[in-house]
Specification:
This protein is mostly helical and about 350 residues long. It has nine helices and no strands. It starts with a helix and ends with a helix.
């Protein structure tokens, strides 16, 4: 729990540092949120035309009006089956359009955010270098970390928004049908979120050490190309951080599947029992079972998305540390307007310096 709280604090600090660079692109974030709501609404509506067909097939004179929830909404003109099939096709089309618009909007937001971040980071590089920051870390942050943040933000926004909203929507609908089953679903979903957060807290330190070693290697290459040092024959070992992170993610995914398996069993038992006793109609039983089938992969995707935060957080921290630095104007000890009387401060090596050094 201590590591989890530490990861949450670090994530919040990185978010506060990077959030201002996303404000000029909030229109894309808003469009993505609207598209997400439409997408989730289509997903939630997906089982209802099928339920209507089931109500038609199993309709008898003994069936009460309360059980015919979908059929009672169909216009009286024409064949109700055609209405339901048309509604099903419409839901699929809306689903596809909303998903494409959501991806496009969140991608534009991530690209705009990271573009501004990279520009700000480049503007801070000279000031950081003057204060002794490692060149390798600066190069790695400006090039590698910004790319990772762009890819991570895009995938996290797409996955967490749609799967998280779908989870909440299913929880509301299932709770409205059967409160006990809804509570079981909520408990299982919250346990999934906690498992994903645990995975992120375990993978984040591994990725952070890997990024530090990556910066050290970039620094060694920088000094070698500048002619200052010889390149080591054996580069710094990364000790297989990807394997370690993949192991953590695999363990987390297994935990999520196990939690959802137990949740699904409890939901099925309660739903079928209520159907046998007559508390739930066949249509209501079908609706819950349909959501049970739909929610498994989506909830697993939610857990994986939360784990993925652990991969992005160290890169976001490194960029935040760079963009928060305010470069100071050079002092007289750092530069001199008179070329015949150079300053006594630290000077950056020039091409003439290396040419004289080689001769």
């Amino acid at each position: 729990m201590k590591q989890l709280r530490k990861t949450l604090r670090r994530t919040h600090a990185a978010y506060r540092a990077l959030a201002p660079y996303g404000r000029p692109h909030q229109r894309y974030l808003f469009r993505g949120a609207v598209a997400t709501l439409v997408l989730v609404a289509a997903r939630l509506a997906f089982p209802w035309p099928l339920r209507g067909l089931m109500e038609i097939v199993f309709h008898t004179n003994k069936t009460n009006g309360r059980a015919q929830v979908v059929v009672n909404l169909i216009p009286r003109r024409g064949d109700p089956v055609l209405w339901l099939v048309g509604a099903f096709v419409l839901i699929i089309l809306v689903w596809g359009v909303a998903e494409s618009r959501q991806r496009l909007a969140f991608t534009r937001y991530a690209v705009g955010l990271t573009s501004d971040l990279r520009s700000a980071a480049i503007g801070r590089v000279s000031g950081r270098a003057a204060f002794g920051a490692a060149p390798g870390d600066l190069i790695s942050t400006v090039t590698g970390d910004t790319t990772r943040v762009k890819t991570g933000i895009k995938s996290i926004l797409i996955s967490i928004s749609r799967n998280g909203a779908f989870f909440l929507g299913v929880a509301v609908i299932v709770t409205a049908i059967d409160p006990v089953v809804g509570i079981v679903y909520l408990v299982g979903g919250l346990a999934t979120v906690l498992a994903g957060a645990w995975g992120a807290s375990r993978s984040s330190p591994i990725i952070r050490r890997s990024r530090a070693r990556e910066g050290a290697l970039a620094g060694e290459l920088h000094h070698h190309l500048a002619g200052q040092t010889e390149l080591s024959a054996t580069p710094p070992s990364d000790r297989n951080p990807d394997s370690k992170v993949t192991r953590v993610e695999g363990l987390t995914t297994f935990s999520v599947h196990a939690i959802l398996a137990a949740t699904t069993c409890a939901m099925l038992f309660l739903t079928i029992n209520d159907g046998r006793t007559g508390k739930l109609s066949p249509g209501a039983v079908f609706t819950i079972l349909a959501y049970v089938l739909l929610m498994h992969n989506k909830t697993v995707g939610l857990g994986r998305s939360i784990v993925r935060v652990g991969r992005v957080q160290p890169s976001a921290e490194r960029i935040a540390a760079l963009v928060k630095h305010r470069p100071e104007p050079p002092t007289p000890t750092q530069t001199s307007p008179d070329p015949d009387h150079p300053a006594t401060g630290t000077q950056a090596p020039t091409s003439e310096h290396f040419a004289n050094k080689q001769t």
